[in-house]
UniProtKB/TrEMBL annotation:
Residues 5-229 form the Four-carbon acid sugar kinase N-terminal domain. InterPro entries: 4-carb_acid_sugar_kinase_N, 4-carb_acid_sugar_kinase_N_sf, NBD_C, NBD_C_sf, OtnK. The keyword Nucleotidyltransferase does not apply. Residues 261-418 form the Four-carbon acid sugar kinase nucleotide binding domain. It comes from Actinopolyspora saharensis. Belongs to the four-carbon acid sugar kinase family. This is 3-oxo-tetronate kinase. Its EC number is 2.7.1.217. Keywords: ATP-binding, Carbohydrate metabolism, Kinase, Nucleotide-binding, Transferase. It holds the Pfam family SBD_N. GO terms for molecular function: ATP binding; kinase activity. It catalyses: 3-dehydro-L-erythronate + ATP = 3-dehydro-4-O-phospho-L-erythronate + ADP + H(+); 3-dehydro-D-erythronate + ATP = 3-dehydro-4-O-phospho-D-erythronate + ADP + H(+). Catalyzes the ATP-dependent phosphorylation of 3-oxo-tetronate to 3-oxo-tetronate 4-phosphate. The lineage of its organism: Bacteria, Bacillati, Actinomycetota, Actinomycetes, Actinopolysporales.
Amino acid sequence: MSLRIGVIADDFTGATDIAGFLVSAGLRTVQLNRPGSARDLPEDMAVDAVVISLKTRSIQRDSAVEESLRALRILQDLDAERILFKYCSTFDSTAEGNIGPVADALLEALEESATAMVPGLPVNDRTVYRGHLFVEGVPLHESGMRHHPVTPMTDSNLMRLTEAQGRGTARNVPCGVVNRGSRAVHEAFQEAASDGVRYLVPDTLDDNHLDVLGEAFQDLRLVTGGSGIGWGIARALTRREAAGARRAAADRWRFTSGRGVVLSGSASEMTNRQVDHYRSVAPARALEVPRVLDDAEAYRRELREWVLRTPPEDLAPLVYATVEPEQLKSLQRRHGADELSRAIEGFFADLASELREHGVTRFIVAGGETSGAVTQALDVSGFEVGPQIAPGVPWTRSVDGELDIALKSGNFGDVEFFRAAQVEVTTHA
Ligand SMILES: Nc1ncnc2c1ncn2[C@@H]1O[C@H](COP(=O)(O)OP(=O)(O)OP(=O)(O)O)[C@@H](O)[C@H]1O
Ligand SMILES: O=C(O)[C@@H](O)C(=O)CO
């Protein structure tokens, strides 16, 4: 097997996000949830891209570097022509973060001296102007990300953030140069590299810019950034085939025949709106936190029987822990934030695995941590990635062909996401 692109992703839903964009640009893509499971890939499986999903965003630097290098070796064994290190479109990495050290280690292992840093994802309103990252039109450090519990972002300047973490200097490529096209960007990259600059940070204001950057960077051994640049590079690689391949991905997608369920453990603003909407069109049960803590087994049985009572042809029933921020804070004060998170994630994981034993084959899960816990409990070593339901959220099928799974990052998708996931499978390219 030889791969056109190999991706190392620093978190779980981030991996699914980029995998969906690669498919939408026409690459047949598999996501591996356990890096070692590359050896389980069927010999005859036609794959253009492999995305290895790690959980290295907020762990110790040494471990993040070590795990990323291990993933690199697996991708090299699969003959990956180019490597993309995927991190968050909101960077999610403070001065102590791992993006710089991992990029440095990958550069060294690939014997390269410079790379591009492209977190922008304009379709989800994450843009870069003069090297500053904006989320929905406001600078990163003024967006909700300034309150992130693990990686509070207090700076929007990507050059400063990168230089604080890495071993080299960074330089912006302003949008005036990007507007001139891929040759101008390529020249800017060459000039920067010969000046000893290690990280090139181009402006990214719209999808045209992603196309230009994809074209300019498609021959670099290492590119870093979000799913947007993955899409840009994949489109550069498949320019002529893309439309046909996109249609083929959507045409091929058929749901498994079993029942479905929606499990929402995300407490984000968008998920709150999505849960509110879905409750008005489908059966839904809010998780009772005291019973999760004190009566989990009996409570799971009760919810399981309730889920299985819904006729399989109806919209899938929803079980949700999702609450508004004030209520979340008050629950966390009463029970302890970490304990509660662990208990709720564990509850969803066990519920998912029991539902699977009782014939549920289609899972829609909201929340990055919740998705990780559920996927692990379902023992899914990898996914074949299908068409996107919304930008950054594709349908996936477990490599054993038994389960359909959609994993939604907290803030992705629009208000009707949960219903849309079940009624239409169009590709957002
Ligand atoms: N009602 C609740 N009370 C306490 N904790 C909750 C509640 N609902 C959800 N949680 C916890 O909040 C955390 C939400 O994290 P998760 O990563 O799943 O969602 P998210 O942060 O919205 O998504 P993403 O990381 O993709 O943006 C989980 O650990 C979950 O168990
Ligand atoms: O890039 C993004 O915004 C997401 O894929 C992500 O990384 C979620 O954690």
